[in-house]
Write a structure and sequence with these properties.
Blueprint: E1 3-6, E2 9-12, H1 17-29, H2 31-38, H3 49-63, H4 70-79, H5 88-97, H6 105-134, H7 139-158, H8 165-181, H9 194-200, E3 208-213, H10 219-233, E4 238-242, H11 247-259, H12 263-268, H13 273-286, E5 291-295, H14 301-314, E6 319-323, H15 337-355, E7 359-364, H16 387-391, E8 394-400, H17 403-413, E9 426-436, E10 442-449, E11 454-457
Parallel strand pairs: 3-7, 3-8, 4-5, 4-6, 6-7
Antiparallel strand pairs: 1-2, 8-9, 9-10, 10-11
Length: 469
């Protein structure tokens, strides 16, 4: 795009003829300048077509290990029948004369890149304006496409970069040590739970992990424990989209979980001095934890994607949590509820892939599980749509191990009997890896302490609990 029409006046889009000449001249004078510029500039960053052709020839010669001086460039242009197109041999000489200082080649390149970025923004704005005027799609779709268009311009500007070997070696050694400590099984982000990491290898980038259970079994608590582990221990950014609980409730749960203070004490406002001290320490420890909370009962996949993209660009994301999938507002009206949930699951999977981060989505189970002996959930129990099973890379079920016994009690005491208070504060929860696209399936048992809404691993052979934080 060489020009735009604005208010009846044709305007030339941003460019710098002098900077383009200077950077090409520097590259033909000093071969070292080619290495510096090649990591910053791409051929389509040049506004003038003949400059782009010359740049491509210089890169071609450099990649072949040949000189990139005036003579070789002219010879290569003649060989591919492009010499007359760019202005002949005389113009190549002009480029060399137009370079004020070879050492400033990277600065000239940045000017060219900056002008190209402005042109791309103008083009993106023109597309967005066209979409808005056409009104052929719903507003959420237009906003989503607009954000993606602008984000693509920003990501293109970042370009490639290099890092010193020392830093890379330190990072590599940290990963080696971590894998050594965990028996070499970890390839993703550690969850803080040894057995979960054993079965999954950690939370893998771009995967959709569905955690499903019947109400009251501890879906949200399980996700919060994983989120705290990743944020506090691994220092990774976590964003939690809570469609069911308010941010105040989530924060209270986090504090009680971390401090091991009974959450019912907080509700009764009878906090003892000892508990107050624990909560104070928990506040201090969690103060720097990179956790972000979005609490809204009416979030759509477009809003989740937009906020996640923004956090990824600004902070870098380690984990996305959606609590829970069936409450997400469908991206479009569909004929059936199953199709709506299918669209939601697909949107979340695409988001995980786009941002290359694990996304943990909580899900409800259908009531069919209550009528099955043992009440152990299976993939067909995922509520509202079989597409959840199809889109998920990993499906984890949480199953209260005394469900079969509780079912028998209901039959003897009546369906309306209130048995919730009869359960002990600490329960055995079976964690079932029912599906794993790139790994094994299996199950193991964890302890769930309802007082602290805290999951912990079963004691080791030595009788010591494995710490979660």
């Amino acid at each position: 795009m060489s020009s735009i029409q604005a208010a009846g006046v044709e305007r030339v889009t941003p460019n710098s003829f002098e900077a383009e000449q200077a950077v090409l001249g520097a590259m033909m004078i000093d071969k070292d300048a080619v290495a510096q510029v090649a990591t910053l500039l791409r051929p389509d960053d040049f506004y003038y077509e003949h400059h782009r052709v010359i740049y491509e020839v210089i890169l071609r010669l450099y990649n072949r290990g040949e000189p990139t001086d005036m003579v070789t460039v002219i010879n290569e242009l003649r060989r591919i029948n492009q010499l007359d197109r760019i202005g002949g041999s005389a113009y190549i000489g002009t480029l060399i004369e137009s370079c004020p200082a070879i050492a400033n080649a990277p600065d000239y390149a940045r000017i060219v890149v900056d002008k190209a970025t402005l042109r791309r923004l103008i083009l993106a704005a023109a597309r967005i304006t066209s979409w808005a005027y056409e009104e052929q799609e719903d507003v959420d779709t237009v906003v989503d496409r607009a954000e993606a268009e602008v984000l693509a311009v920003g990501q293109r500007r970042l370009g490639a970069h290099y890092e010193p070997l020392q830093r890379l070696l330190m990072e590599a050694w940290s990963r080696i040590e971590r894998r050594y400590e965990l028996g070499g099984i970890l390839t993703g982000i550690p969850t803080g739970f040894r057995m979960l990491d054993y079965w999954t290898g950690g939370l893998q980038p771009s995967e959709l992990i569905v955690v499903a259970a019947r109400p009251g079994v501890g879906k949200t608590s399980f996700a919060l424990c994983v989120a705290l582990n990743i944020a506090v221990k691994e220092k990774q950014v976590v964003v939690i989209f809570s469609l069911e609980m308010s941010k105040q409730e989530l924060i209270q749960r986090m504090l009680c979980t971390y401090a091991m203070v009974d959450q019912h004490i907080m509700r009764r406002s009878t906090v003892a001095d000892e508990d107050l001290e624990k909560l104070s320490l928990a506040c201090q420890h969690l103060y720097e934890a990179p956790i972000y909370i979005v609490d809204s009962p009416d979030l759509s996949p477009f809003e989740i994607r937009a906020l996640s993209r923004r956090l990824q660009a600004e902070k870098g994301l380690g984990l996305i949590v959606v609590d829970y999938l069936q409450l997400v507002k469908p991206p479009r009206k569909a004929e059936t509820r199953a199709q709506e949930v299918s669209d939601i699951a697909r949107s979340l999977k695409l988001l995980a892939r786009e941002l290359n981060v694990p996304l943990m989505a909580l899900s409800q189970l259908s009531r069919a599980v209550e009528h099955r002996p043992g009440r152990r959930p299976i993939l067909a129990d995922l509520r509202d749509s079989g597409a959840i099973e199809a889109e998920a890379d990993v499906v984890i079920f949480l199953h209260r191990q005394d469900e079969e016994e509780r079912g028998r009690k209901r039959k003897t005491t009546g369906e309306g009997a209130q048995l919730g208070d009869e359960r002990p504060p600490v329960e055995d929860i079976e964690v079932i890896i029912a599906k794993q696209r790139s790994g094994p399936t299996g199950r193991f048992t964890m302890k769930f302490d309802k007082r602290y809404t805290r999951f912990a691993e079963i004691a080791t052979e030595e009788g010591e609990d494995i710490p979660t934080y």
